[in-house]
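Exercise (ungraded).
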Amino acid sequence: MTDTPLQGGVPASPRATERPAAGHASTNREGSFWQEGSSVWSWLSTVDHKRIGVLYAISITIFFFLGGAAAGLMRFHLFTPQGLLFGADTYNRLMTLHGVVMVWFFLVPSIPTTLGNFLLPLMIGARDLAFPKLNLMSWYVFLAGAALTVLALLMGGMDTGWTFYTPFSTIYSNSMVTIAALGIFVVGFSSIATGVNFIATVHMLRAPGMTWFRLPLFVWAMYATSLVMVLATPVLSVSMLLLVAERFFGMPIFDARLGGDPLMFQHLFWFYSHPAVYIMVLPAMGVVSEVIAVGARRTIFGYAFMVYAMLAIAGVGFFVWGHHMFVSGQSPYASIVFSFMSFVVAVPSAIKVFNWTATLYRGQITFAAPMIYALGFVGLFTIGGLTGLMLASIPIDVHVTDTYFVVAHFHYIMVGGSVSAFFAGLHYWWPKITGRMYPEGWARFAAILLFFGFNFTFFPQFVMGYMGMPRRYAHYPSEFQIYHVLSSSGAMILAVAYLLPLGYLAWSIRYGPHVSKNPWGATGLEWRTESPPPKENFKTIPVVDNDPYQYHQKGQAPQHGEAMHRGQGEEGGGVHPGSQTRQSEPA
Amino acid sequence: MASPRKPPQLYEAPSSTVILGPALVWVGLLALLAANIGLTFLPLGRAKTAVNLGVAIVQASLMFAVFMRLNRASALVKLTAAAGLVWLSFLFLIGSADFLTRPMISP
Amino acid sequence: MSQASGVLHEPFTSGVRQREATIFAIWIFLASELLLFGGMFFAFYTYRHAHTSGFDGGARHTNLLFGAINTALLLTSSFAMSVAGRALEVKRAALAEVCIWVTLALGVGFLGVKGLEYVQDLHEHLWPNTRFDGADPASRIFFGFYWTMTFIHSCHLLIGLGFLIRLGIMARARVLEANSDSVETTSLYWHLVDVIWIMVFTTLYLVGK
């Protein structure tokens, strides 16, 4: 890296910004949003989007480890064909717990409600979201839904799988389906409130000069995600209501004995739950676009196409839900349409992968932890996407429906994709959020461990799934044992890779070195305010007069020696193209 | 919370439109309701569903346009309302692709 | 819609902008509500297509008189609510307050009539359990929709009544004008609930008769 002299004469080696680990008086948090009251009530009654982001982060972390613990237990159980720990019924309940908690209480809210809440106003140059009280209310609604679901778990849990398919969920299941369904119904309104707030904010509160096509891609991702949240979630709500109406009140809506159609439930359910996949992965795409641009010090390749691709994914994502139902007895004519549309939705996703790759071309790539996570995302997302194409093709889908192949596919998208990107974003914006840098060595180690642990866990599942190992079974024929052992061992590695950040990020809140405004030398308005930001975000609302991602002069590659390192770009990063050349001059 | 301030009056609505405009729509809505109930008992055969729903849609449109003031709303708000209806049509159209073609396979 | 908000809240610095954002946001929510009820209507009409005679047999058991009275009540309440918003814009706060209480009263009246109807329905064994009074099993599904749709609609109405009570209290405290945003949003929500009732009424009481 270059030895860039920083203002104040602090040498620019990665460790240089480290002051004697004070651990106590965190000087640069003076006047930050962390300092606006420290009582519990000041947090519970806050309407500051940054604090609400922190509240959400704490909540979803708890649920992430709850769902993760269930997965860990299941994988441990599957070391042997007979199972090590529990019977089939307990296994079903753990599997359902894992699915419900991970989907609705971690993945759907993960990036939007934490990083999105924190960063969206900062990135567009606003003082807060458009409706701060609504934002706080959405967190309480989330908690209410979470409380109902936890209540259902404490009362014995559910055994239907996260999809709640009728008629099992309505007539046959002897578990807490009603309460869990109500919990999901309630948490849906938290999603809708967040979506409404984000859309209104992006439309109404952009800083002067922040035109639509100057928005960072993360903001576009939040916008597209919010559209899906607002337009898809109500249909999940109604499917849950109809489920409760039938199960609890005896309304025979999906009852095939009277002429009702269980497939109606599946249609309503997947009308939400397929777009929900895009609720999970669009924010991840936004994060990765930010990190890859700064990690390669390169203007994002094909910015406009990145935007169109995200909007196309959000739109076309609504037309493909029937590919979950190819073997359900759905009309084959409908299946053909859904299959075709599923191939179509792969096009914008492929455009994005292509553009990330092209962004790296002739970039000055460095492998800081966020970049490792982001590059991991691109690879894992590509595998997940390509196997998705296999599943979109009806003959292959019929062969592998309800096998581990499907499990591996969507975990590549949701865990390999979304969770990797969540960690990328968490590390990348960690100095902005806390004012402290995380320990880079540990973070790189955790990032690499996550990549290997993940592949170790889920790649064997592709193989055994293709060979016919069905999902959701507590026991299995012994010829699959080698794959299950590989997968379970990988899951233990993965667990370590998830626990590590919990430890070192918590450590860094107290002992991490202080950082400047813009430790990565990144563009973007969020890097032009203090780290951590003051309550009002900006002393004066910034004026935007340039396009995003100006990491180098237009038409030229970034200069040799420019790279994403801490301590670079003290002043506003690459916001002013001229400043880039200045920073890259060797001392 | 900022202190209350005098809202700038951007247009002056004459007092008569405060009641008269909505009242006309109200009378229209009640007339349509009566008409719709009346139509229910006419022997219209298979068209009856469409006629009943058509009248209901006219009523809903009146509510949207005048009571909910879509007629004077910004393009953005009109677009938002349209988006709700368009996405609803996705559910109906693509969902029907299954239910309407299924009998062709297994009569 | 070109009016400005009464009281500014963070992070807005312009009343016109805040009003614009508020109206926009409530419409996003209303679009979302449309899809919530739309899901039920989709299920209903799909089933009716498959079981026309059973569904129409069910529809003949719904009480058109109660339904029509309720529709008239809600249409009138929408009229009153609409006048309330417009009166506030021309600073006739007293008229606005009267209209809010009238809207509230009509909404309560709706729930009362609905309650009477429910009692009668239960008396006629229209709850779709095994003691259901009807030959065609699809009629039971019809009444599954009847109870679900009307109940969920009534829940929405109840929420609307809550907002109306809030407006009424504001009017008593003479702060209605400062909270004109709330009047607008409550009014739009109330109208949407009425629009949905028009569709529910047509679907359950008229289409199959």
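Further reading is listed at the end of the chapter. For now, observe: Chain B touches chain C through 60 residues (CB under 8 Å). The CA atoms of residues 19 and 25 of chain B lie 10 Å apart.
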